[in-house]
Amino acid sequence: MTAMFRSFSTFNYRIWFLGALVSNVGGWMQATAQDWVVLTELTDNDATAMGITMALQFGPPLVLVSLTGWVADRFDRRRILLVTQTALMALALGVAALLLSGIMTLPLMFLFALGFGITNAFDAPARQAFVSDMVSLEDASNAVALNSASFNMARLIGPAVGGVLIVAVGSGWVFVLNAATFLAMLIALLLIRRNELLPRVKSRGRNGLADGFRYVWGRSDLKVVFIMVFLIGAFGMNFPIFASTMAIEFGRGADGYGLLSSVLAIGSLAGALLAARRDRARVRVLIAAAGLFGVASIVSAAMPSYWSYAAVLVVVGFSTVTMLTTANGYVQTTTDPLLRGRVLALYMAVVMGSTPIGAPIAGWVTDIAGPRAAIIVGGVAGLLAMGTGLAWIIGSGRLRRRENTRFRLTLDETTPITVPRVDPVEFSDEVAAATTPIRTERAD
């Protein structure tokens, strides 16, 4: 148990965790309200419009990745987060004002979704990289998993509460309450002890995305992780579209949709807590989680009732968070610190930026063939992701026959991974040895 929560020994991380938990509850309440407003108040159950909203909200991380990663590496991440969290609070209040006054339209909601997306494009890589400023590298994977646990504890509470509030007081007030929860994160950022943050080397280069891209391109393991996450992120993780349209198919309202999101979070929370117990992130766990996601998604599409569908969503949530937490932890703990912000910006661009590609497709498939067909497409993407990972393991020579046996196989977790030097002048052997838990070699 102590190992599971070892990052809590750091004061700054404890404060951060509590602030993020409160803010995430509000964020999930708002996400539920926004999806329901677009689907039922601004349109007549138009899943394509919902997909466009998601594309506008999650597209900016992909378009702005060259800038946002450089900003996260170059500037004080705490100050970046103070600015982005304040901006997100202001946007939530803007949506609330338009909804409560009755003048919100679909084009205006599209504009606000784009505003949320642009702000989150800067917030996400800084927030992800800030974890490594608060805890040691040995605890970084644990901290990432606990962050995911916080996110999914909020997901367990937020959608259910948001769905009830939509019915009870209206969607506009949900946005007001979310704006208030941003104060928790702002207070946490102000209370953080800056003198206890770990020192880091700030990037002075101007190549931004190019440096991060060259680094990832030289790492076959990272390329495989990014491809797997993209496949599932684009086609499998369109839960707002899947859950809301399935709720309607089963004759449920906003509260039924919120409950499905909370049920999904039960499995997600279990996956995050289990990930927190692991000493490090492993690619084989990512591969297994991708396969489980694919199977569970296809099974969920065949469920005949609301409650049977909800039961399978627990497994879907578990596999999703296991996959994302493992991928995030692996990227953070095996990336050189000077480029961590840019590499994480690329990772977040893959996670969030895949939505503009997949969400409109999922919405279109839902409108044409129904939500079950769209869910099956996502499940197939999960199986393809698993196949991609297995192909890399076999091709890399990690999977081999165990000595002294004929048929048993073993997976060699200690096979060295070559990490190319980005700039021999900017890196020192001491920094690399202290921050990279895998062998590094100079590229010829």
Automatic annotation (TrEMBL):
Keywords: Cell membrane, Membrane, Transmembrane, Transmembrane helix, Transport. It is found in: Cell membrane. It is a multi-pass membrane protein. InterPro entries: MFS_dom, MFS_trans_sf, TM_effector. Its main location: membrane. GO terms for molecular function: transmembrane transporter activity. Coiled coil: none annotated. It holds the Pfam family MFS_3. Residues 1-196, 207-444 form the Major facilitator superfamily (MFS) profile domain. The chain crosses the membrane at residues 49-71, 91-118, 160-192, 224-244, 256-276, 283-303, 309-331, 343-366, 372-394. One of its GO terms (cellular component) is plasma membrane. This is MFS family permease.
